Amino acid sequence: VFISQGTVGKAMSKFAVELSKQHHFAFKVIYKLHPGEYARWRKEYPWLVGADIRVIEDDSMPLYQLFAESRIQIGVNSTAIYEGLSFGLRTFVLNLPGVEYMNDLVKGHYATIVGSVDELKEYLKRQDSTLQTSTDRFFRRDALKNFHEALREIIVASRAKKR
Asked: What pLDDT is attached to residue 49?
């Protein structure tokens, strides 16, 4: 699944189309548009129209459902990439403007930077055992319990401040 953003959508969508045209490519390409791209993608990314790509152009399919049904995510610097990590997705970031914001993910071996379709295909052939799969660094377990504890702490602090 590609996680698009308006700032890099043109280059990313061309990358997705090029990838979809590769012979013997074993994956179905899904291109998830950013909500800001919904109304304009056909005009700005006409190469996606008719391509062998499933374009998600509205909110009818939740992002988490896409993540649950995918094995790989490709993006640049969207915060959704962090969410995809929690689904255990193998993560690639395209070497486009803004990729520098993902340096911590790359240095921490959570993601791999790729600059071309051929480079991505080579990485996909390998089973990279150096990539991190634990997301404990980004997400704490028991979100609801953590929320209640944080809320309780805020209330206690607020009451103490009023005294």
From this structure: 96
Residue 54 burial (10 A CB sphere; 0-12, 13-18, 19+): middle
CA distance to 63, 70, 108, 157, per residue, from 4 (Å) = 12, 15, 23, 41
Q: Smallest Cα–Cα separation from 64: which of 48, 90, 85, 92?
A: 85
Q: What's the token pair of residue 87? A: 């689904």
Are 64 and 83 contacting, i.e. CB atoms less than 8 angstroms apart? yes
Name the residue type at position 34. Answer: H
74 CB neighbour count, 10 Å cutoff: 27
Query: Mutual orientation of helices 9-20 and 117-125 as an angle, nearest 10°?
Result: 60
What is d(CA 65, CA 68) in angstroms, rounded to the nearest whole number? 5
Instruction: Summarize pLDDT for 4-41 with one digit per residue, the tens.
Output: 999 999 999 999 999 999 988 889 999 999 999 999 99
Q: What is the rounded radius of gyration, in angstroms, for the C-alpha atoms of the chain?
A: 19
